[in-house]
Amino acid sequence: MSEPVDPVDLVPDRPRPKVSELTEGFWAAAREHRLVVQRCDDCGALRHYPQPRCPECRSAAWRWTPLSGRGTVHTFTVTHQAFHPAWADRVPFAVATVELEEGVRMVSDLPPEDVDRVAIGMAVECWFEDHHLDDGTTFTFPRFRLADRPPPA
Questions:
Q1: CB 98 within 8 A of CB 106
Q2: Do 74 and 91 have their domain in common?
Q3: pLDDT digits (tens, 9 = 90+) for 121-132
Q4: What is the pTM of this model?
């Protein structure tokens, strides 16, 4: 009979998306602390989430292009129930749709210190959260936080 497993060991620190051939460039840039999206080579439209064809002109030609990482809160919700065990000790938390200066939108949870202050239209900035994995690799999440953060005490 095997030893009982501590349930905490079964809970990842944060769910990670599956990286595909289509999304690898996005995640590779995140590891370098750069925020990128696809730009259509034919019509110039920016898009996120990564897609094989431009939704504007249907072109399959595209490249990764850097973004400023600055934007505003388009909408948000404050969640009081964890939808995944990794968030059990983080409730309540805020999830925001961010409209970046370049016009594309991304979704991000906000840091705990922003939950009680967030409002539609507030300025946000991108930051990168590195998760060091047991296999020695790092997975990096681009996240957003309010740009008017008070200085540290």
A1: yes
A2: yes
A3: 999 999 999 988
A4: 0.84
Q: How many domains does the chain have?
A: 2
Give the contacts of 109 (CB within 8 A, at least 6 positions apart). 93, 94, 95, 96, 143
CA distance 86 to 82: 8
Residue 149 has pLDDT above 80, yes or no: no
Instruction: Based on the fold, state whether residues 55 and 98 are members of the same structural domain.
Output: no
Close Cβ partners of 28 (under 8 Å, ≥ 6 residues apart): none
Q: How far is it, in rounded angstroms, from Cα 1 to Cα 15?
A: 30
Looking up residue 106, the CATH number of its domain turns out to be 2.40.50.840
Same domain, 79 and 146: yes
Q: Which domain holds residue 45?
A: 18-66
Q: Are residues 111 and 41 in the same domain?
A: no
The predicted-structure confidence for 65-101, as pLDDT tens digits, reads as follows 999 999 999 999 999 998 888 888 889 999 999 999 9
Q: What is the DSSP string of 80-131?
A: -S-SSGGGTTT-SEEEEEEEETTS-EEEEEPPGGGTTT--TT-EEEEEEEEE
